[in-house]
Amino acid sequence: MAKPSIPLGLVFSRSGPYAMMGREMEKSALMAVDEVNQSNEFDFGFTPHLRDPAGIVPAYHAACDDLIRQEQVEHIVGCYTSASRKQVIPIVERTDRLLWHPARYEGFESSDNVIYVGAAPNHTVVPLVRHMLEHISSDVFCAGSNYIWTWETNRVLREIVTSAGGRILAERLLELGETAVDHIVTEIIDRKPPAVFNTLVGESSYAFMRALHDASKRAGLTIPTLSCSLCEPELKMIGAEAAVGCITSSAYFESIEIAENRAFVARWKARHGSDSHVSVDSQSTYVCVMLLARAIRRAGSRDVAAVRRAAANHRYGSPQGPIWVDADNNHCFLTPRLARSVQGSQFKIFWEADAPERPDPYLSSLDLASFAAKLSHGADPAAKRPAYLRVVK
Amino acid sequence: MTRPSPFSVRGRHALVITRDEREIANVRRQLNRLGMSVTETDPEQPITPQISVDVIVLDADTMPIKCDTAPALKANAPVIALIGTETPSRLKWLLDLQPASFLIKPVRSAGLYTALVVAFDCAQRRIEEAAHVEKLEERIRSRRIVFGAVLQLMRNHALSEDDAFTLIRQTAMRHRTTIEQLSADIIALGGMPNRGSRTA
């Protein structure tokens, strides 16, 4: 007997500037939909309604308007950039629908009509900067794409680094999509910073990592690079050698060694090919659909208020480990992790939090004094500098 | 001089800097209802200072954070910021423009009038405060002159500092001039100008 079906809006840009990510996320959403539809654990299924805004910001509003009015959806999974989410929020708030948002973002938002499944800034940038201060350097060179994610990530970085007595050696920005990176790479090779913080995205980031790798090799340098956005499919695009060695912060890596993840990756590869890779955003999209399905089951209804209540504090053993929605701010408890990129488009995890961390979208619990204290307890910051660097007075 | 009322917005001219078609439509419709005229421009366009602009309605999200238009905006009319992103990095950029007022996007029919009134009132107060500060700074600049005049009278007439200053203050009142102006005259003439007989 066919299960009753609930319409589900999926809004991903399959074309346009970040089509690669959009397609990966949509694939993951459809995989989750199929699993729900085929599972005996759910007495309902989803009918997905796909929309492709092609990365055009106002098209997100039009797509959601259409999904809500024509397809009568209560729930939408989608968006990738903050600009697109900001387009969708007014309409889901006005019509009281729920947007399930998979991507990490820069924080400073908390809508009742959005469930933020991606990482908040306390899950990504904060542990990465802490690691940098404790193990690499308190001085850092920043290269990033000229948009909100970089501005805000660099602001947090600057606040933490300066309160720990470190310095931002430079902040170099490239327009989105720009691949002329040589001037930045040349400056890095000339100045030999003890660390490079990379918030470039897409093609800019790939071009930068390749060029920096080549130039460092020629100059006989090893300059540690850090990222809070790099993911497995991107490592593949960057290329085998240049993609190795980047210290990356994320709530999900394909290499997480828990049963839920091994099974998930196996299902993913069976469906999408053995040479395909799961990214943090596609895993998070899968988790969005699953959190939604479980909340509907728990609520016994697709009604937005009932689903929101049912989703809150309802623990789900996801591929990235236990995850649940914080009823206070609609963001998720997630486990922050740090890893180093290695051969084979993989990450080797070297640190993870003891337990899922409460989301702090406004970084209101960030204690800057704790960073200053940590550094003063440690050795002389100059002593932490890698051996190849001379201290020039 | 009577202050222009911030409540009367009819006939004023707004420069709207945004790219979002829906925001433009909402802002334009509401401004027209209020009897204001509207010029629209793209955030990437360079802004030329326009004397006739009474208020700038600016979509903060669409402006590049490192851009050259910000200085041009500062010298202009009061700014109402349309805000979508509340991150500190964006707000810091906005604070540099000293916005007179703000609205959270999406712009609705309610709220814009209040934002305009607050912006016009804020702009008027800023003009008045600037004039007041200018006056105070002028006084500080002439303090040396007043001090010089006091010293001159103390020497000429063997007066205490208090008495010399009192003499200058009373004479300035009698001559219907400022203490600063009279002090400048005392220094120029090497003593109290002899106008006492006319007013005695």
Please render the helix and strand layout as text.
The complex is a heterodimer of chains A (about 400) and B (about 200).
Chain A: E1 5-11, H1 19-38, E2 45-51, H2 57-69, E3 75-78, H3 82-94, E4 98-101, E5 114-116, H4 121-136, E6 139-145, H5 148-163, E7 167-174, H6 182-191, E8 196-199, H7 202-219, E9 225-227, H8 232-238, E10 246-250, H9 259-272, H10 280-299, H11 304-311, E11 316-318, E12 321-325, E13 332-333, E14 337-342, E15 346-352, H12 368-377
Parallel strand pairs in A: 1-2, 1-3, 3-4, 4-5, 6-7, 6-8, 8-9, 9-10
Antiparallel strand pairs in A: 10-14, 11-12, 12-13, 14-15
Chain B: E1 13-17, H1 21-33, E2 37-41, E3 55-59, H2 69-74, E4 79-83, H3 88-96, E5 101-104, H4 112-141, H5 143-157, H6 161-174, H7 179-189, H8 196-199
Name some characteristics of this structure.
heterodimer, A: 393 residues, alpha/beta, Rossmann fold, seven-stranded mixed sheet, B: 200 residues, Arc Repressor Mutant, subunit A, five-stranded parallel sheet, 5 strands
Provide a descriptive summary of the structure in words.
The complex is a heterodimer of chains A (393) and B (200). Chain A is of the alpha/beta class. Chain A has two domains: 5-119 and 256-334, Response regulator (Rossmann fold); 122-254 and 338-384, 3-Layer(aba) Sandwich (Rossmann fold). Chain A is built from twelve helices and 15 strands. Chain A has helices spanning 19-38, 57-69, 82-94, 121-136, 148-163, 182-191, 202-219, 232-238, 259-272, 280-299, 304-311, 368-377; strands spanning 5-11, 45-51, 75-78, 98-101, 114-116, 139-145, 167-174, 196-199, 225-227, 246-250, 316-318, 321-325, 332-333, 337-342, 346-352. In chain A, strands 7-6-8-9-10-14-15 form a seven-stranded mixed sheet, covered by helices on one side. In chain A, helix 4 (121-136) crosses helix 5 (148-163), helix 6 (182-191) runs parallel beside helix 7 (202-219) and helix 10 packs across helix 11. Residues 381-388 of chain A have low confidence and may be disordered. Chain B is of the alpha/beta class and 200 residues long. Chain B has two domains: 13-128, 3-Layer(aba) Sandwich (Rossmann fold), CATH 3.40.50; 142-199, Winged helix-like DNA-binding domain superfamily/Winged helix DNA-binding domain (Arc Repressor Mutant, subunit A). Helices cover 51% and strands 12% of the residues of chain B. In chain B, helix 5 (143-157) crosses helix 6 and helix 6 (161-174) packs across helix 7. The longest helix of chain B is centred in the middle third of the chain and has 30 residues, at 112-141. Classes of the chains: A alpha/beta (393), B alpha/beta (200). The interface between A and B is medium-sized, with 17 and 17 residues.
